[in-house]
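Example record used in the benchmark description.
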Amino acid sequence: MPAPSRADLLAALSDETLARRAQDGDADAFDVLVLRHAPALLRFVARTHPDRSDCDDIVQETFIAAWKSLPTFAFRAKFRTWLFSLASRKTVDALRRRRLDVDLDAVAEPVDDTPGPGRRAESVDFLGALNRELSRLPYPARAAWWLREVDGMTTAEIATVLHTSEGAVRGHLQRTRGRLAQALVEYKP
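Model output (structure tokens):
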């Protein structure tokens, strides 16, 4: 049986171990982190920034900033949380540059390829309504909802990402959930 490749060995390491190796200049370790986290970051940015054409650039800027800042990363938060924090800052910067009131209706919906046209139509209708309601929220509330409900982050991690208090995050989540429950009552099973 052949020995595992360096790429296989790196892929098996934790984020923190890879980040420490990348701090020491191991570009391959950083590449594994990029491959591991790019899809989630792209989903997050795409759901919180109105122009899909800018999302890849924002994610790329996030990884460039991470690479440059990695030598000073002190591991006070998980690497993933720190990375989402950078992505959040890059997204807010892009929104400021564009001076837009964020509208998620401009974001194309992912295609739902589950079987059955009826279920597909219901899902697309629900996702459209969800996006419309989320688009009416300010960035911090929308970002907090996505980080919790889609990316599964804890309140503490979201507070770190958004540079706010845990109480503010809990407030954003509570108000957002209440608003969504009222606005989407027709979709309740």
